[in-house]
Design a protein that fits this description.
Layout: E1 8-9, E2 14-17, E3 24-26, H1 33-39, H2 46-51, H3 57-65, H4 79-97, H5 99-107, H6 116-130, H7 132-135, H8 140-153, H9 160-172, H10 174-177, H11 181-191, H12 205-210, H13 212-234, H14 237-240
Antiparallel strand pairs: 1-2, 2-3
Helix pairs in contact: 1-9, 3-4, 4-13, 5-13, 6-11, 6-13, 8-9
Length: 248
């Protein structure tokens, strides 16, 4: 994948780097049908899940697959793939029940509160991107490019829908889009089209903008605790057994 130092084209819109801040500035444009279709698969907090993956293609695919595979883990899958799916599910459960995340939900206005989980998944990935240096020794863009290489070269089991999403994620550089509030707003607007009936998700980027400092505070309280939880999970017998129950 080629990243242009002048501008990055993402299927119908452009991101121009702001020389003073390093942020990307979005221009308006028409986003193609493939992008809308892919967003129907809920590209939410992918960056966080990928951060917790092991440094292998199988683990990274597994840590994404939790959004695409329902039901029991297949014992014939590689252990790293099973571990990733299992860990993804545990992270989601921990997040949904955490006081900071629940507090963040309460900050979303009543007009969109039933969609708070979606808004916050994207917003928390935004804050992870903005505070990346606190949580990873690897530069963010180098990490993202390595992810794209690993996901692109993976040849093992992958649900068809997920394979299409990975291809578009790499082609359109989704993981960089979360870095700006404009990117968050664009993603949420595009996601609003995944519902068969009209929703209040369109324009939901304003929820991040209106509550930015408080949501950032919630995230910075929450994420170190998530890191500690993941460290514990990775030491558990069930994780070491590839997400399968350990026989007594």
């Amino acid at each position: 994948m080629l990243l242009c130092t002048i501008c990055l084209t993402l299927k119908g819109f452009l991101l121009y780097p702001n020389e003073s801040s390093g942020d990307y500035i979005f221009t308006t444009g028409i986003v193609d049908a493939a992008f809308n279709s892919a967003l129907e698969t809920q590209p939410l907090n992918y960056l966080a899940h990928l951060l917790f993956a092991e440094n292998t293609p199988e683990s990274r695919v597994g840590n994404l697959m939790g959004d695409f595979h329902r039901g029991p883990l297949n014992k014939d899958w590689p252990i790293a793939l099973r571990q990733g799916v299992w860990l993804h599910r545990k992270i989601d459960a921990f997040t949904d029940q955490h006081d900071d995340f629940i507090c963040s939900k309460g900050r979303i206005g009543p007009f969109r509160r039933r969609l708070a989980g979606i808004i916050l998944d994207v917003s928390y990935d935004h804050f992870l991107s903005r505070h990346w240096q606190q949580f990873s020794p690897i530069p963010r863009q180098a990490f993202i490019l390595q992810l794209y290489r690993d996901l692109s070269c993976y040849q093992g089991y992958c649900p068809d829908k997920m394979a299409r999403v990975i291809a578009l994620m790499v082609e359109q550089d989704w993981l960089s889009v979360y870095h700006t509030t404009a990117g968050v707003g664009l993603v949420l607007d595009r996601m609003s089209h995944r519902f068969r009936r009209p929703t209040n998700l369109h324009g939901a980027g304003i929820e991040l903008e209106n509550n930015y400092a408080l949501l950032e505070q919630d995230f910075l309280s929450f994420f170190p605790q998530l890191i500690y939880k993941v460290e514990q999970l990775k030491q558990s017998d069930i994780y070491l057994n590839g997400g399968l129950e350990v026989a007594n």
